[in-house]
Design brief:
- This protein has 380 residues and is mainly alpha-helical.
- The chain folds into two domains: 139 residues, no CATH class; 156 residues, no CATH class.
- The protein is 80% helix and 2% strand.
- The protein has 15 helices and two strands.
- Strand 1 and strand 2 form a beta hairpin.
- Helix 2 crosses helix 3 and helix 8 runs antiparallel to helix 11.
- It is globular.
- The two termini are 44 Å apart.
Length: 380
């Protein structure tokens, strides 16, 4: 139904629903465009906000120990950046060793490609020339896209340097001006809403901080399991592949598929084809343990997001901000769930993001209406 509104002269104006929907869609398009246009600033700020939530309990503990706030912030950020730099250095050094073996791997992949050509000729009854033309077409397209890929890589490297420069700066300032930001939020609400806002912010910090710690612990467990399994199979560069898989595992569903393909290609190029099947079985088993045991007990205890919302959030984050958006999608969704759960009128959206599915579809729409028409209990 059209919704009425009043003009300044008291005249009642009825706005059609299609007009409200059109305004909403235009606003959504402008909002998404603004997010994409401001990626260079917004993404580091969001990462800094998450890191600040993670480090805030440590900083507050140091303040209680009579350590100046700016010193506590500096020490916390320093250790966090050293930890990330250590992981980056490890991946870079392992990748350097991997690149040294690329010529040998390329020869083995070429030999594997010829074997697959012969198999395709026999299986699909194709002529050798047709298969060779198809392979050559793929190579040509790959070379044509090589220049674009190099340009994107250089841009990404520049963005990474800017990101690691801005991240500690933004994190330091957010933690330093924490009370100023909280005062600003308090002035956005009426005094009678302050207890609810205070409770929401407190739970938001606790949930997001614990959620991020859970993700870090989950990544460590997944990396260890994959490393041990790849070592048992005999796959080269097992530790590097395990760390990469743990990082990609932070991107639900999509990241794990990419992480599984990498060691399978290494196994096909350096070992028997059966080794690739063992790798597939290993990653499937680790993913099963991760989804059914590790995540529910370590990550899911902090905040529960259903699989549908998680996948949609990852796709939306990737469409707006690329790979950084995929990493940010789940923490942002977790923050939105906490805000929705503690905001009047937004609880249905928090319920939609969660995983508290009704056990039975019967009575979903009738239970609330029956409760509404139930006569009140008379005292005495």
């Amino acid at each position: 139904m059209p919704t009425p509104s009043s003009a300044d002269n008291g005249t009642l104006i009825i706005q059609p629903n299609y007009m409200k929907l059109s305004i909403t869609m235009i606003g959504l398009v402008v909002f998404v465009y603004a997010l994409r246009a401001g990626q260079a600033v917004i993404v580091p700020i969001l990462f800094a906000l998450l890191l600040a939530m993670l480090l805030d309990p440590v900083v507050e503990r140091m303040v209680k120990w009579r350590i100046p706030r700016w010193i506590g912030i500096s020490v916390s950020i320093l250790f966090a950046m050293l930890f990330m730099a250590g992981i980056g250095y490890f991946i870079a050094t392992q990748a350097a060793h991997f690149s040294e073996a690329m010529p040998d791997l390329e020869k083995k992949w070429n030999a594997l490609g010829k074997d697959m050509q012969r198999w395709a000729q026999g299986a699909f009854n194709m002529k050798r020339q047709e298969v060779a033309e198809a392979v050559e077409k793929v190579k040509t397209e790959s070379m044509e896209k090589g220049g674009t890929l190099v340009g994107q890589t250089l841009t990404t490297v520049g963005t990474l340097f800017a990101f690691f420069f801005l991240l500690p700066v933004f994190t330091f300032l957010i933690l330093l001006y924490k009370h100023l930001l909280l005062g600003f939020i308090a002035r956005l609400f009426k005094p009678e809403r302050h207890p609810q806002v205070r409770t929401t912010l407190k739970k938001l910090r606790g949930v997001v901080g614990s959620y991020l710690m859970g993700l870090i612990l989950e990544a460590g467990i997944v990396a260890t399991l994959n490393w041990l399994g790849l070592m048992a199979i005999g796959v080269q560069y097992a530790l590097l592949l395990a760390v990469i898989s743990a990082v990609l595992n932070l991107i639900p569903y999509i990241g794990m598929m990419i992480a599984t393909a990498l060691p399978m290609l290494i196994a096909l190029a350096t070992m028997e084809p059966s080794a690739a099947l063992w790798v597939l079985a290993l990653y499937a088993a680790v993913q099963f343990l991760d989804n059914n045991i590790i995540v529910p007990r370590i990550v899911g205890a902090r905040v529960q997001l259903n699989a549908l919302v998680s996948l949609v959030a990852v796709m939306v984050g990737g469409a707006i901000w690329g790979v950084p958006g995929m990493f940010l999608s789940l923490p942002i969704a977790a923050m939105l769930k906490v805000i929705f759960d503690h905001s009047d009128g937004l609880q249905p959206f928090g319920y939609l993001l969660g995983d508290d599915q009704p056990k039975s579809p019967h009575g979903i729409f009738t239970s609330r209406s029956k409760a509404a028409i139930r006569p009140p209990v008379q005292p005495g």
